[in-house]
Design brief:
This protein is an alpha/beta fold and 281 residues long. It has a single domain, classed as Acetylglutamate kinase-like (Carbamate kinase), CATH 3.40.1160. 39% of the residues lie in helices and 21% in strands. It is built from 9 helices and 12 strands. α2 packs across α4, α3 packs antiparallel against α4 and α6 packs parallel to α8. It is globular. 48% of the residues are buried.
Length: 281
């Protein structure tokens, strides 16, 4: 072992629309994925024991989930089979991501959410942190992803990477581990306003405007696309976690964001006292 787990962490999400073509089933954008593998290796070296990576299901898991309506819960043999196909599809993309990280020089440790998270009513109910904390302590780069998980009321549910990150932040705080920043890499340069211009900052004064402007996702997506990402970033802000929503197609942007630089994109300010849930002010 290399010592105790990091006391502060940063989260990185590789959006499904960035690493796959969500308009074409099971199509990986290898050029983006290979470059990001190298950039994450550099980031892991600069922040040892301080990163968790997640990635979306893209045109792999989302297509399979939509075809089998797995996101609505399952029952009976047909539903169970659809859930298995969806998990298999998400796993195939995950293996491609892990392979790219290895090729880039990382030491990834795969953590399938279905093996450490159980939900109830599609919300995280029980999360087992021991594998994640042990991986960090051992010098690995933990890698999670959007996955099919067991659900106490619906049979199974889809746990997006956003859902997994939010659950991890909450539970890690109880173990004295603080998440300070989340970097969301997609194929747009942040959250756009009604005129298509990037909102540079979402704080208490800009929440309503951002919510009005943000849309869903292009292509197959059963979890909500950018709207889901923004709501997750707002929820993390209330826990003291700053988010940067940036264009993952821009080389070098990831390392700069993790270093705390101001980068092109949308910053969701970490201010627990000023950002409130939807409908509450």
């Amino acid at each position: 072992m290399t010592g105790r787990p990091a006391r502060t962490l940063q989260l990185v999400k590789l959006g499904g629309s960035l690493i796959t073509d969500k308009r074409r089933p099971e199509t990986v954008r290898a050029d983006h994925l290979e470059r990001l593998g190298r950039e994450l290796a550099a980031a892991a070296a600069a922040h040892p024991g301080g990163l968790i990576v997640g990635h979306g299901a893209g045109s792999f898991g989302h297509v399979a989930a939509a075809e089998g309506a797995v996101h609505e819960g399952v029952s009976g043999p047909e539903g169970v089979a659809a859930a298995s196909r969806t998990q298999d599809a998400a796993g195939r993309l995950h293996r491609r991501v892990v392979a790219a990280l290895l090729e880039g020089g990382c030491s990834p440790f795969s953590l399938a959410p279905g093996s450490f998270l159980v939900s109830a009513g599609a919300r995280p109910f029980r999360v087992e942190l021991a594998p994640l904390l042990q991986a960090l302590e051992g010098g690995f780069l933990p890698v999670v992803f959007g996955d099919v998980v067991q659900d106490r009321t619906r049979g199974v549910a889809i746990a997006s990477t956003e859902t997994v990150f939010r659950a991890l932040v909450t539970r890690l705080r109880r173990h004295g581990v603080a998440v300070t920043r989340a970097v969301w890499l997609g194929e747009t340069d942040g959250v756009w306003d009604e005129d298509g211009a990037t909102l540079p900052l979402v704080d208490a004064t800009a929440v309503a405007r951002a919510r009005r402007a943000v849309g869903g996702a292009d292509g197959a997506d059963v979890t909500g696309g950018m709207r889901h990402r923004l709501e997750t970033a707002l929820a993390l802000a209330r826990l003291g976690v700053e988010s940067w929503i940036v264009d993952g197609r821009a080389p070098g942007l990831l390392g700069r964001a993790l270093a705390g630089e101001t980068v092109p994109g949308t910053r969701v300010a970490a201010d627990p006292s000023s950002i409130h849930p939807a409908g509450r002010r």
